[in-house]
Amino acid sequence: MKLPRRRQFLHLAAGAAALPAVSRLAWAQAYPTRPVRIIVGYAPGGGTDIFVRLVGQSLPARLGQPFVIENRAGASSNIATEAVIRAPADGYMLLGTDAAAAINAALFDNLNFNFIRDMALVGVSRGPLVVAVHPSVPVKTIPDFITYAKANPGKIAMGSSGTGGINHMAGELFRAMTGINMTHVPYRGAAPAMTDLLGGQVQVMFIGLPPSIEHIKSGRLRALAVTTAMRFEALPDLPPVGDFVPGYEASQWWTIGLRKSTPGAIVERLNKEINAILAESQVQARLSDLGSAMFGGSSADFETFIVNETEKWSKVIRAANIKPE
After folding, report:
1. Do 284 and 268 share a domain, yes or no?
2. What is the pTM (predicted TM-score) of this model?
């Protein structure tokens, strides 16, 4: 029996409208069909680069195509971020970045992108910084340090790897929440800052675990606390700063993302595969060596996380009137 002409037309129109959606779904399920690039916003050898390479070496076996890592350093990862946002939203160019993604939104004026609006995160690892002081500073706990700093206003120099970096921001947040007066001394990277901390030219740093843990174990530095809300297994005796400064929390984190307008099935597949990689025992062990741990979740979970991070660091930057170098 033939359909009435109007019903036949509507039936054909509905079928035609569904074709693009079916095609997109099939395309996403077949992804990837060629090599994928991951643009890392920093030079080789840093935490972000190591994290991306740790994940990237396992992705080809899971997805059947090479994942080629390209380092494109500059402007606190903004150059790499803009390159990915300008690329087609097809999942063939990913971004490797870190906490700067949340900090830069307030630190830099007139960015050509909005990270929250434009990027979807598909894998995250995060961990604490350590509040470490030179042994000449006569303190052993966070309350001791606050008392000492208030009794010696302006006499404590806080080193960092550069203005606007996560260790600078963690220190500024601590300063704002405790009311102490520290002098910020920015360096061009963590290595020269650590050298001067070990030499006593600066007295305190909010520093990542890899460059500090051996110096802490040897006694060349004294660790007071970790900056995350929970203790970290590599230094289980260190309490969180938040135990003494309620509400304080800061973490260093690394992430892989891609354009938010990429088909949802591709975003979900990458998220699923990267979470599975980060859950592997050997990967977790390597992350622990880096002072980090898997932060599992969906892309929507990660969006909530970065919205909160961006809001927190924006408040710190505005309150302290921090400007990029």
Report:
1. yes
2. 0.88
